[in-house]
Specification:
Blueprint: H1 3-7, E1 9-10, H2 12-22, E2 29-33, E3 46-47, E4 57-58, E5 62-65, E6 75-82, E7 96-100, E8 112-115, E9 119-123, E10 126-129, E11 139-140, E12 151-153, H3 161-169, E13 174-178, E14 182-188, E15 192-193, E16 204-205, H4 208-218, E17 222-229, H5 233-243, E18 248-252, H6 263-269, E19 273-276, E20 278-279, E21 281-282, E22 288-292, E23 295-300, H7 304-322, E24 332-337, E25 341-342, E26 348-357, E27 362-366, E28 383-387, E29 393-394, E30 399-404
Parallel strand pairs: 1-20, 6-7, 14-17, 14-18, 15-16, 18-23, 21-26, 24-27
Antiparallel strand pairs: 2-13, 3-12, 4-11, 5-7, 5-8, 6-10, 9-10, 19-22, 22-23, 24-30, 25-29, 26-27, 26-28, 28-30
Bound molecules: adenosine monophosphate and magnesium ion.
Length: 408
């Protein structure tokens, strides 16, 4: 190990902390259709230009009437019918009622709605109320939900489906949000061939380019493929330089201790500050994190499981910061291990698991695999159990911390 990498060796927790500190919150603001804004963070304060409801609104299908009239008689004359969407305007006299539908404007001076199921029709235009509701019942008063000028959604709020509904309800079709990061990515390695092409002896398919693209999209980044890069310093330098125009640059492979792992020295030669380059974590120990100006650079070890999990734990965190996520850190859970698992010495061990709900707690079933190239064994994984450093074994039945995988 070089002295440079020893100095830049950090723990799992330190790596997350460093990324939180060094990651850059994006400054570009874009206007997007409200229906496509879910997952983004609002970059404006949205106030309501209207009262909701905009009029006294029937909350049930039934009959609108004046409550005082019911002291005289429980039988009313039906003088009109008002449906949702009808303009307010109908009116009634003492002893009269109006057949009304949920969402329709309650005509004045009616002050109460009796639900249709509490009534029986005596004649075509005469109805008897069996149960007389209290005054004001089954009417949603004008502006009960929000008043004109009130804040509907605060700036900095992360838009979820309910905010999509709120924004649409106050009449917005588009909304300003923080932009997604543009993310250049490339796999490095002389042995790599794109799927769809026949393999020659010594070659393997490039699976990381596909999984990286899919993770970038899922995490709300904009992928910019740089192609497959050869293990040649000059070639790497040229292609990596182009990637530095983006908000982030991801490289898989070429960051370990091998003779042809040129990525760290090429990054240094391009003026990238290497913030860390060794993690006390298994897998993905040689993960590299660097910064140049406004660009974050991640070197992800090329074994497919390492690339998958390094993206999940470190790159996704930086993307959430970029997108102004109010809680960028991954949610932590606890679950019961269904099989004993040994630790990884001085390193935190990330164990791919299938996580199930056992009625009152989570169960974690580790997916045994024989190293970080063995993606075939981890199909179906949806959680990473975190086995702390310095622990020899966690026994079946014990509780461990975990994170859900791909929870962007
Ligand atoms: P490296 O990190 O470049 O030393 O690569 C570590 C291992 O992962 C080697 O066995 C590589 O062949 C393999 N590998 C590297 N990049 C990829 C990739 N893009 N797709 C699949 N396997 C890869
Ligand atoms: Mg390589």
């Amino acid at each position: 190990m070089s002295s440079a990498s020893r100095q830049t060796r950090v723990s799992f927790e330190e790596a997350q902390q460093i990324i939180l500190e060094r990651a850059i919150a994006g400054t570009r603001i874009v206007e997007v259709p409200v229906a496509s804004a879910s997952g983004s963070v609002l970059a404006e304060e949205v106030r309501s230009p209207l009262d909701m409801p905009p009029f006294n609104k029937a909350a049930m299908d039934g009959f609108a009437f004046q409550r005082a009239d019911a002291e005289e008689s429980d039988t009313f004359r039906i003088v009109a019918t008002v449906a949702a969407g009808d303009a307010p305007g109908a009116s009634l006299q003492s002893g009269e009622c109006i057949r009304i539908m949920t969402g329709a404007p309650v005509p004045s001076p009616a002050d109460t709605v009796v639900p249709v199921e509490e009534t029986s029709l005596l004649e075509e235009d005469r109805v008897k109320f069996h149960d007389i509701p209290a005054r004001g019942m089954h009417i949603a008063p004008e502006a009960e939900d929000i008043r004109t000028g009130d804040v509907a959604v605060k700036a900095g709020h992360r838009i979820q489906h309910q905010e999509v509904a709120i924004l649409a309800a106050v009449g917005r079709s588009t909304v300003k949000v923080y932009d997604d990061p543009t993310i250049a990515f490339a796999a490095t390695g002389e042995e790599l061939v794109d799927p769809g092409t026949p393999l020659k002896p010594g070659q393997i398919y490039n699976s990381n380019a596909s999984s990286l693209r899919s993770q970038i999209l899922r995490a709300h980044g904009r992928p910019h493929p740089l192609g497959t890069l050869r293990d040649d310093p000059q070639h790497l330098r040229d292609r990596i330089a182009a990637g530095l125009e983006h908000d982030m640059l991801l490289l898989s492979g070429g960051v370990s201790m091998g003779r042809f792992d040129y990525v760290p020295e090429v990054l240094r030669s391009l003026g990238i500050e290497i913030v860390f380059h060794q993690l006390l974590v298994k897998p993905a120990k040689p993960t590299l994190f660097g910064v140049r100006d406004q660009t974050l650079v991640f070197g992800l070890p090329g074994n497919p499981i390492s690339t998958l999990y390094a993206f999940d734990q470190y790159v996704a965190l930086a993307i959430r910061v970029f997108r102004h996520h109010p809680q960028p850190q991954a949610t932590r859970y606890r679950g019961e291990l269904t099989e004993s698992t040994s630790g990884a010495g001085d390193r935190v061990l990330l164990v791919p698991c299938v996580c199930d709900w056992a009625g009152d707690h989570y169960l974690l079933t580790p997916l045994g695999h024989h190293g970080s190239a063995d993606i075939f064994a981890i199909s179906g994984a949806n959680a990473l159990a975190l086995i702390p450093a310095g622990i020899d074994e966690i026994r079946r039945g014990q509780m461990v911390g975990f994170r859900k995988l791909y929870n962007y």
